[in-house]
């Protein structure tokens, strides 16, 4: 028998199944070979080591931003600033990767640390605005995304751009700055180890420390937490600092792990995708791993489907939209939860 404590996991699984079922129905209507197309979508990402590597490579930045956003959401801060921080920290890291000369093991550490610190400081600004003046964090974070993108693009165009390249890209990074690859035949890099360590640390912080408890209580009821003696303003600023640090590290790791020069001429989208990962993970740091891998898996599957069949990759947008709609619908399956609560109450 299912218990109430497992309800959110069951609800999330049901959302995913419904979204995939609707997607398969649409595929069967638009494809000339629906069975083959669905097979490509489901199984092609596992068909070779290279494709599996693609899933993990895409999941790494999603884990970083998903973890950052999940901590903000846990504090009831609807902040989407991870997008701009991810981008701008990549720019900062690129500057050091191009112009700094250090030993191989030290160069990426310094570059990533710089991007992470910049991310934390930038994230603190909407945090301070929220804590001190109750400014809406969604509005301020979205505005900061545009500001950081504009400044980053300016730096790329006028200070980092390689005039000899036939594209709007930076000079090449020093080889000592690049992260090493972990699995031959793939582009899986050491950023995977970094993000897993961060996820474990975030889990311990959230559930095993006084600061994590205060963060969770502030998210549940800020007024109650404040009346209980918790300094909620400091909690809000702290969670923004931590989330910005993680998102900044994600942008830095992605740049040094996947590229040899900076080449983002638009926001990469990983910050906003992090919100979807956090929603799938129910703001649980450990669950971010599975949520990021799932999202990366269906995206690689959609890409392979677009290449090998007659269905475009935009199908993934339908799946994501359905997932967001159903997960954000508080009343979805709530009747079943109430029934479970009554049944457990009678048994007690």
Automatic annotation (TrEMBL):
Residue stretches spanning the membrane: 12-31, 51-73, 85-102, 108-129, 138-156, 188-207, 235-256, 315-333
Keyword DNA repair in record: no
Alphabetically ordered keywords of this record: Cell membrane, Membrane, Transmembrane, Transmembrane helix
Signal peptide residues on this chain, from the entry's feature table: none
GO molecular function, one term: transmembrane transporter activity
GO CC, any one term: plasma membrane
KW Acetylation (keyword) present: no
Mode of membrane association: Multi-pass membrane protein
Main location: membrane
Subcellular location: Cell membrane
Name of protein: ABC transporter permease
Biological source species: Paenibacillus etheri
């Amino acid at each position: 028998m299912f218990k109430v404590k497992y309800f959110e996991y069951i609800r999330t699984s049901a959302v995913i199944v419904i979204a995939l079922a609707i997607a398969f129905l649409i595929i069967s209507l638009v494809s000339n070979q629906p069975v083959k197309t669905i097979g490509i979508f489901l199984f092609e990402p596992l068909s070779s080591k290279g494709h599996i590597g693609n899933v993990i490579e895409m999941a790494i930045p999603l884990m970083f931003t998903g973890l950052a956003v999940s901590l903000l959401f846990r504090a009831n801060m609807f902040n989407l600033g991870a997008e701009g921080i991810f981008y701008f920290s990549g720019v900062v890291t690129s500057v050091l990767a191009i112009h700094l000369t250090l030993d191989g093991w030290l160069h990426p550490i310094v570059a990533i640390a710089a991007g992470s610190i910049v991310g934390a400081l930038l994230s603190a600004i909407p945090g301070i605005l929220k804590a001190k003046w109750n400014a809406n964090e969604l509005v301020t974070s979205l505005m900061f995304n545009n500001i950081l993108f504009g400044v980053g693009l300016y730096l790329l165009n006028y200070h980092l751009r390689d005039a000899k390249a036939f594209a709007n890209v930076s000079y090449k990074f020093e080889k000592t700055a690049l992260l090493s690859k972990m699995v031959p035949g793939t582009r899986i890099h050491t950023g995977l180890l970094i993000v897993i360590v961060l996820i474990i640390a975030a889990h311990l912080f959230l559930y095993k420390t006084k600061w994590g408890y205060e963060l969770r209580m502030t998210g549940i009821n800020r007024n109650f937490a404040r009346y209980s003696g918790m300094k909620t303003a400091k909690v809000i600023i702290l969670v923004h600092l931590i989330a910005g640090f993680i998102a900044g590290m994600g942008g830095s790791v992605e740049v040094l792990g996947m590229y040899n020069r900076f080449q983002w001429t638009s926001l990469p989208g990983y910050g906003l995708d992090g919100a979807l990962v956090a929603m799938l993970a129910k703001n649980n740091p450990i669950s971010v791993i599975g949520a990021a891998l799932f999202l990366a898996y269906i995206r690689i599957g959609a890409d392979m489907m677009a290449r090998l069949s007659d269905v475009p990759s935009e199908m993934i947008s339908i799946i994501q939209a359905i997932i967001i709609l159903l997960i954000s619908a508080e009343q979805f399956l709530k009747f079943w939860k109430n029934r479970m609560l009554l049944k457990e109450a009678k048994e007690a």
